[in-house]
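tool_call predict_complex ligand=histidyl-adenosine monophosphate
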Amino acid sequence: MSKIQKIKGVADLYPEESARYAFMEATARKVFGEYGYGELRTPILEKTELFCRSIGEETDVVQKEMYTFPDRKGRSLTMRPEATAGVVRSYVENKIYQPGKVSKYFTTGPMFRYERPQAGRMRQFHQINAEVFGASEPHADAEVLLMLSTFLSEIGLEKLSIELNSLGCPECRPVYRKALDDFFSSIDKEQLCDDCNRRVDTNPLRVLDCKVPKCKELTKDAPSIPDHLCDECRDHFDVVLDIIKKAGLSYTLNPRLVRGLDYYQRTTFEVTSGDIGSQTAVAGGGRYDGLVSSLGGAKVPGIGFACGMERLAMLLEGEYERKMDFYVALVDERCASDALLFAENLRRQGQCGEVGFAAKSMKAQLRHANKLGVSKCYIFGTEEFENRTVTVKDMAEGGEQKTISLQD
Ligand code: HAM
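tool_result ok
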């Protein structure tokens, strides 16, 4: 029979790798909990319309990357390409909003985007996602950035850079769009890459962060978003920057950071690393004050971010699997039950370890114990069976070996 292989762009995560994911999730749970966030688990499947309306019809995600299919009744469903849309859908549907109330949620889990797979870019990938609803103050933006930075430093990643920008609001964005349209009509658009040629009409801001050298060159004198912010957006952004600076967070301003999802307004940010190849963004987020109302809710502001776990996992060093304390070596098969019950007793005392189920030579078992890296090996052989004892071997180099009564 032929073997079935996994589909392209997805991964099986075995313990060595999945332990990194568990560590990141546990750290997020701890850190985000300290800031008052609770976990919200939303479905992987949503109505396709949700993503079209929130992420934006003209984005790459909606145009080219969604796993969309009709269900058995012909309704169009999509496997979530990101978490924010589902969280907002749930927030609106469950009528969480009350005037003056701030709600904070985090979400973790798999997301799906039909992209060309490469290191750090998968078709099924995992995010740790945080969202705050009901706070329009710049202090909320600052707190979100500080929480993200605390999380990253608690998983051991200190050397990442944060890039920040403000995308303005519905007041100042049209003024900027006009300036940008004027600029594009002054250049030879044919020379832009195919994607940008389309984006000039459908989503011109995206042209600004195209990585194609020719596009970068052609747009180097394009008007800058920060120069077109209204007074409120400018003040908002200045307060955010002032607070994070006082908190000791280092950042760079990137006036071309526009993000790939349409719902952002005002503060936007990305965390990047130079150590993971061409996919440099390990986290991204920003403010989305118009999203809740555009999905049928009240006029509630929101802000959040998502970290890409595959990319963070590439940066984590060391081992994250739980270390074993002991190994119980079964050398005489007549001791099998005693050995198993002995190991169980140690676990009830809080130790971690394994026991051999089938009897094997002492040499093979000690080799296995060494591989596990345990500090103690308990040996159940013929002599031990006859004397109702167990031999305890200290696995450190030159470690002692002694025999104790099984009763003890
Ligand atoms: P995003 O920038 O599209 O934002 O994704 C966030 C992070 O997910 C990226 O920085 C990257 O690390 C990771 N990521 C994205 N696509 C892939 C992929 N194909 N393979 C591996 N990792 C990937 C969002 O998704 C927004 N929902 C973030 C947000 C939350 N904004 C406000 N709240």
